[in-house]
């Protein structure tokens, strides 16, 4: 399987190892497999009887054809071990009726990013060897909170790599900030940025596209790569849990093989929901994909009107990992549906005018699968309270956005299919807002909220977050967004 860019027709094809090593195509586009491999009914039937790691190796091997099955199985077993994820890396639970929840936050940093970022550094490290790369890889990450910590934890002390993370100082929760500021590892560096997530992401993109930085680094035996969801190595492990959830529903006798289900995904950069779309294109019986947003509802509007317009106010919300105005992976959807020429056209318009518009037919094609819903802050809080009081489950602020959207969709569609809402973070990662939603008053402090939520609900604090306030702060620095370049060079050449 070769990989091509989303922006240039008939571009040079590269191997999957090269795509994972490099992150971004050299025309500024994202890497995509040149075709989507099929998962036929017999293969799906075989997957039903497998455990998560075997399912992962089977799905990954369809895309990463320059890796052996044994290598992929080995990496899956290392990534999704019981010690790191508990008995099932992606358990499925019934909420009520046809509404299910797929929990993706049982990994070491308590958010779904671990599903990709525990295995990706392993794939990356193999990619360096497969490409005969001898330079040090500097992984550069812009994060709205969860990616940063998950990438730091995944890449920490991986030989041949260094990792540098930028996060918006006022755009992440106290717990997220503590998680990053206390990060251990000999090859890690973390800076807060004065600005929002898009400032951090634009800064990182600028550094990636600056030839003079690349040449300075290269002279010192360093090259840049990305762990953001624009990297194919982030996306491909996310396909697995959609397939796995489907298999688990068949195993539990809730659906018969071939019966269609819906997924509702709390969306920011469009990576997670796009992985579900690939699963559908492979042949997994999926009907609708519900794109759930918070009041940063640029995607809801896009899916309703065909206009993508980032010229709007940016809102800081209680679901900060979805506070995004430019959803980078939407580019992959445009490419998959309409090809490289049309994608480049839209991306040029987006960077010039901050907006682009689909034709009526194009929108109709996308709406065959995708529907957008958004949830405001008050409904997010009400959903947390409702699900706790009526279903006896504690959910985080991002999951609440998805559950609220799923309920609205099910109410509107009346199709009677199973809908799986994707649960992307532990409630304890956002304990302050979860506590406030349940009790009607604020906790005594953001870090105290962990214990207060525990006392209120008698649920367990996940081990990685327990006693986090007692850990030593190692990365305090906050810099201006214009100083990101210097920070990268200083760390790389250190
Ligand atoms: C990253 C994240 C999201 C958004 O996922 P995308 O792939 O960026 O759409 C949603 N919820 C949580 C908790 C996250 O960390």
Strand order in the largest sheet? 3-4-14-9-10-13
Largest sheet: 6 strands, mixed
Poorly predicted regions: none
Class computed from helices, strands and strand pairing: alpha/beta
Given the structure, what is the number of helices?
22
Can you list the ligands bound to this structure? pyridoxal-5'-phosphate
Between the first and last Cα atoms, what is the distance in angstroms?
38 Å
Overall residue-averaged pLDDT value = 95
Task: Please tell me what the overall shape is.
Answer: globular
Q: Measured on Cα atoms, how large is the radius of gyration?
A: 21 Å
Helix proportion range: 40-55%
What is the total tally of β strands? 15
Strand share of the residues? 15-25%
Which labels suit this protein?
494 residues; alpha/beta; six-stranded mixed β-sheet; 22 helices; 15 strands; globular; binds pyridoxal-5'-phosphate
Short overview:
The chain has 494 residues and is an alpha/beta fold. It has helices at residues 16-22, 41-48, 52-63, 69-79, 82-85, 113-117, 120-130, 146-155, 174-181, 197-208, 211-219, 232-251, 271-282, 298-305, 330-338, 340-353, 360-367, 377-391, 397-413, 431-439, 448-457, 484-492, and strands spanning 3-5, 31-33, 92-96, 99-103, 136-142, 161-168, 188-194, 222-226, 261-266, 286-293, 307-309, 355-357, 370-374, 419-423, 478-480. The chain has 22 helices and 15 strands.
